[in-house]
Automatic annotation (TrEMBL):
This is Endonuclease/exonuclease/phosphatase domain-containing protein. It comes from Mytilus galloprovincialis. Residues 15-197 form the Endonuclease/exonuclease/phosphatase domain. One of its GO terms (molecular function) is catalytic activity. It comes from the Eukaryota. Gene3D superfamilies: Endonuclease/exonuclease/phosphatase (3.60.10.10).
Amino acid sequence: MGSFHYHAICRKQSKHNNRYFGGLAVLIKDKLKPYIKILNNTNPDYQWVLLQKNYFGFTEDLYICLVYFPPSCSAYTQRLDQDILDCIENDISKFQKQGKILLCGDFNARVSSEPDFIANDSSKFIPVNTDYTIDKELLTRKNQDKVLDTRGKDLLDLCISNQLRFLNGRVLGDMFGTYTCHTPNGSSTVDYVILSESILDQILYFKVSDFIPTLSDTHCKLEWEILATYKQENLFQDKNTHPLSPNFRWDDDSANNFLMALGSADIQTQLHNLNNKTTHNSQISVDDTCQELSNIIHLAALQIFKKTKNKQ
């Protein structure tokens, strides 16, 4: 999988026992780090990350918000000065002017199968000089969780106001709205991926993975794939490589002739010397030995074969 850059977002230490409770973590593959920016953060319950359009082949930059929204009944939430959804919406209004939006994480909100768009939307009665984008008529979203709570209503209002749409229960891989959270009291859907309506067709799949107790106490992993056209850099550009051997003409007698060339006194002496050579357990020593063997085989081929001409 390669190496990763790790970025942690921690809440303040508890005054009671100086421990950290809750937080977020972002893992970015090292080779992608130059093209992904961790934006300045003012809240420990969410983190914005920017994917640059030029590298990933997007038409616009993609702003991803990683979210952990504590339960509304928790003491931590009760002490907050501002509602987390309000803070996120303020950021959305700013970033939407610069790119597309994707929200993901644990919202502790239950939205049932209520619509996240305006049905039968129309601009017929909108003044001509008003820039208004009509909501698309989308497939009805499925959800195994039939509960709609207060925070779920607020989350749906945020989606409708900003033309954001749920992936859960709507795209390939999760057409039935699988539960994302399992506790002794029952199952629910509280973890979501939500994104700008205009890039919904760029999602290749979305999946709620099976519950793994060693990965989380109650939550399932969410995974999805978005269409990108970036090109990976040459993984071998910093390594010493050797030019390809030239092509040789091959006919029915070539196999026997080549065996005879390998059995010649000169070639056998070189193979014997190579066999007696000590190869150390290092990359340089192994590469040198391989190159010597390649040179011997190449020399034998030169004795009997004719090179093919390069095509113009």
